[in-house]
Amino acid sequence: MERLHRSLHSGLSHNVNASNTNWDVLTPFFLMTYRATPNTVTGYSPFYLLHGREMQLPNQDDLRAKISAKPLDHNQRLKSLKASLRLAYKSVRQANRKAHQNNKRLYDRRAKLRSFEAGDQVYLYNPAVKPGTSKKFHFPWSGPFEITAKISDLNYEILDHSNKKTDCSRE
3-class SS at 58? Predict the structure, then answer.
């Protein structure tokens, strides 16, 4: 959803008038364009994945109703629609798996596994902000704390200032 908002903001910012008052008129046109545009990863537009056919845009051919000379059987049309959607969903799953593997590979290139032992001094990163406080002035690091036990490669037990043991997971 955040990606859609970024695209919406970018698309509207290029077309909104100088006084920024026509964004509400432009939004439906942007959304129509967004829904009709094929995704770079999956190769399918959101409209196709929802309806099983591409969107008929106003700039395509003429807009008169297209009635075939031979009416399609309802069951035949339904089977055809299900088959095309099944193929599209399979293709999207494969594309998402491939993109996930690629993203993991890119992340792993820069990720560093850090290892600590009992007795090491560390700082604790806690980005959570208490309700009613400002995120702007929140400092997420606290400590130093002493590691009392290594539970796994990513989990450690630390001793906080009040001498209570705390389990901490590192992500």
Answer: coil
The pairing of beta strand 165-169 with beta strand 141-150? unpaired
Nearest to 29 by CA among 4, 48, 47, 8: 8
Domain ranges of the chain: 2-59+68-110, 121-169
Q: What's the half-sphere exposure (Cβ side, CA atoms, 13 Å) at 112?
A: 3
Q: For 89-117, how does the pLDDT look when each residue is reduced to its tens digit (9 = 90+)?
A: 898 888 888 888 888 888 888 888 888 99
CA 115 to chain CA mean position, Å: 30
Collect all residues with Cβ–Cβ distance below 8 Å to 35 and sequence separation of at least 6.
45, 46, 47, 55
Q: Identify the band that residue 167 occupies on the pLDDT scale cut at 50, 70 and 90.
A: low
- Return the structure tokens found at 90: 């399979």
Look up residue 145 and give its amino acid.
F
CB of 91 within 8 A of CB of 44?
A: yes
State both tokens at 24: 């509400």
- Backbone dihedral region of 20: left (phi > 0), alpha (psi from -120 to 50 degrees) or beta? left
Of 13-22, 94-103, 145-154, the least confident: 13-22
pTM here is 0.46
